[in-house]
Amino acid sequence: MLYPLETKRLVYAQILVCNGCCCGRTEKGHPAVPIDYLKAEFKARKLIRNVQVTISGCLGPCDVPNVVAILTREEGMRWYGFLSEQWQYESLIEWATEVKEAQRALPLPAWLENHRLDPMATQCASAAVA
Ligand code: FES
Question: Cβ distance 34 to 86 under 8 Å?
Answer without folding.
Answer: yes
